[in-house]
Amino acid sequence: VLGLILFFRERLDVAAAAWGILAAGDGFATIVGRRLGASTGSWPWNPDKSYAGSAAFFLFASAAGVGLSLWTLPALPLTVPAWFPWVAPLAAAFVAMLAETMPVRMDDNITVPAAAAAVLWAFTLVDASLVGRAVEVIAERAPLALLVNGVVALASWRARAVSISGVAGGLAVGLVIWLAAGAPAWLLLFASFLVAAVTSRLGLRRKRALGIAQEGGGRRGAANALANCGLAAAAGVVGLVSPHAAAAAVAMVAALVSGAADTAASEVGKAFGRATWSPLTMARVAPGDIGGLSGPGTLGGVLAAGLLSACAAALGVVPASAIGALVVASAVAMLAESVLGAILEPRGLVNNDLLNFLQTAVAAFVAVALARVWA
Predict the structure, then answer these.
(1) 216-265, pLDDT tens digit by residue?
(2) Who contacts 31 (Cβ-Cβ below 8 Å, separation ≥6)?
(3) pTM value surpassing 0.85
(4) b/e burial code for range 140-150 (CB count within 10 A of at least 16 → b)
(5) What gap in Å lies between CA 104 and CA 345, rounded to an integer?
(6) 20-27 average pLDDT score
(7) By the 8 A CB rule, do 199 and 187 touch?
(8) Are the beta carbons of 276 and 284 closer than 8 angstroms?
(9) In this structure, how many other beta carbons lie within 10 angstroms of the beta carbon of residue 316?
(10) Cα 367 to the center of its chain, rounded Å
(11) pLDDT at 218
């Protein structure tokens, strides 16, 4: 709560709503989940979290978020759009509900308000006057976006590049990025997917022999798609409905590039790396160990980041001047992911999907900061 107040000291409605979502949502999820959870079933990825508990989380978190947001409005030093306290807390409660179901040991007193606050902050960037035009743009793009994404999703599944859940997750991400940011951004997404798919199959025989091959023969699932591309999709939406389109585009590209570059680094390192090092102790570790770094893997990741960043500039998604920021941000994010993985994943505080999401978030933050400095 202190962190929320300090970080959002100019927007105490955001701090209050995020705290309310945690206090009411998490509390009632526990109460209802214990009483009714066994009879309603649980989430496939976390049997400890029931549908009944999650429904209670969303209901009570939404009420608390809206109520506290409205309660703090008179004390704010700025004018807040009338729709904000009614819409933003609902979206934040839904995302926080999903965050609460993650199968990790990290205290949800951290993950829940962090997820809620991130969504609420994103809504502060929205300009309601741009929403009407955004709806028109989406309507224009929808027919072709649906057709192309459907064909690609089916082809990816038939090529055994994704699982059934990966088809659903990839289709959702692809549609959002095309509708929000246009066909050029979707082509970058497709290029990122190709990099991940191709590198996953490099040295597959060696990976299988060592027991470090990607599960499902390299097939990517929905969790992987959302972890690597979810933030990019969200940035695309922000760019469509806010006056910060340029910064949002850099964040979107950074997330896509860093996600694919990290996958390339990991898969190339597993396939060709002979000497793998811990980023914490610099001691030798086995290929495929959590957080391990190798020369070939690092080089492969940086090259992938450079290639995809140049592709983004060639497609006109970002200016060419942003390429350097994107590559540096991807390298920083890959290193951060290795360090965090080595520290947190063995303790069960994060899983690979959460690590991937955090890695894209670091890349987006660093890229936007560097792009502003180097502009």
Answers:
(1) 555 666 777 888 899 999 999 999 999 999 999 999 999 999 999 998 99
(2) 56
(3) yes
(4) ebeeebeebbe
(5) 9
(6) 96
(7) no
(8) yes
(9) 12
(10) 15
(11) 52
Tokens of 159: 């090529």
Dihedral (Cα; 46, 51, 54, 59), 10-degree rounding: 170
Structure token digits, residue 14:
């955001």
106-155 tens-digit pLDDT:
888 999 999 999 999 999 999 999 999 999 999 999 999 999 999 988 88
Name the pairing type of β-strands 284-285 and 276-277: antiparallel
Backbone angles phi, psi at 294, to 5 degrees: -135, 160
| d(C-alpha 373, C-alpha 375), whole Å | 6
Return the half-sphere exposure (C-beta side, CA atoms, 13 A cut-off) of residue 355: 22
Structure-block tokens of residue 166? 């990966």
CA nearest neighbour of 33 among 48, 47, 50: 50
Q: Residues near 20 by Cβ (< 8 Å), separated by ≥ 6?
A: 61, 64, 65, 67, 68, 69, 89
Check: CB of residue 105 under 8 Å from CB of residue 348: yes
Provide the residue type at 316 as one letter: G
